[in-house]
Amino acid sequence: MARTIEPEKLALKRREILDTAQRLVLTKGYEKMSIKDVLDELQISSGAFHHYFDSRGALLEALTERIQEETEKPLLPIVHDPHLSAIEKLQGFFATLDRLRIAQKADVVKLLRVWYTDDNAIVRQKVDDAVFKQRAPLLTTIVLQGIQEDVFTTAYPDQAGEVILSLVQGMGNTHAKLLLSLEQECDERRCVEDIVSVHAAYMDAIERVLGAPPNSLYRADVEAVKVWVAALRGNDCA
Fold first, then answer.
1. Which strand (E) or helix (H) includes residue 233?
2. DNA-binding region spans which residues (predicted)?
3. How far is CA 193 from CA 103, 207, 212, in A?
4. pLDDT per position in the chain (238 positions), as tens?
């Protein structure tokens, strides 16, 4: 009987270690997080830790893999839905990511404050690379469908997913920096307008890369951006 539950116990302890490491990354930053911090949090021995992870680097790889898997699951049904057009899939792809962020808004705001610090530079690059490798092929699949449907006319369909994702990541980084700038200044209106403009510019660029009809992709509006401004700032400048 003990043998049948042992794999479950092992999986549970591994999740606990990953949960703790992820929490420490978000509070201290990866560069300042040590294996000892994890051991102290969980009250486990070094031997117990190394039963699951050979090193701090191995722990980072596992964290990256977990984030990659969690973000991929909700996207796959959209990409493989036979009833959706390519443009509907692309819209659904972006909308799903937006919904996930909104659903975890409080955690996203906490992450935003530490994600772009030097202490998380390594983990940020690791996650960005992993997400890029995961999502680019999914976007390419959508692009190839769009070419078959005669709604996309890109001359580089096999590279389009990578180009789109590079634009999306660039847009996300710019949005994050604009939001974080509100912690040093109180010009909310200008920040909101800048984010709306940046989003429109990047969506326009993606449409041009695809050869898609103008304005076929969603543009963020002022009210949607204000939700994030409110979550980040609270009543700091009320």
1. helix 222-233
2. 34-53
3. 24, 21, 25
4. 445 557 788 888 899 999 998 888 878 788 888 899 999 999 999 988 998 999 888 888 888 888 777 778 889 999 999 999 999 999 999 999 888 888 877 778 877 878 888 888 888 888 888 888 889 999 999 999 999 999 999 999 999 999 999 999 999 999 988 988 887 776 788 889 999 999 999 999 999 999 999 999 999 999 989 888 888 876 444 4
> What domains can be seen in the chain, in order of their start residue?
2-64 (1.10.357.10), 74-233 (1.10.357)
Q: What is the CA radius of gyration of the chain?
A: 21
Q: Is residue 201 packed enough to be buried (19+ CB in 10 Å), middle (13-18) or exposed (0-12)? A: middle
**How many whole angstroms separate alpha carbon 174 and alpha carbon 99?**
19
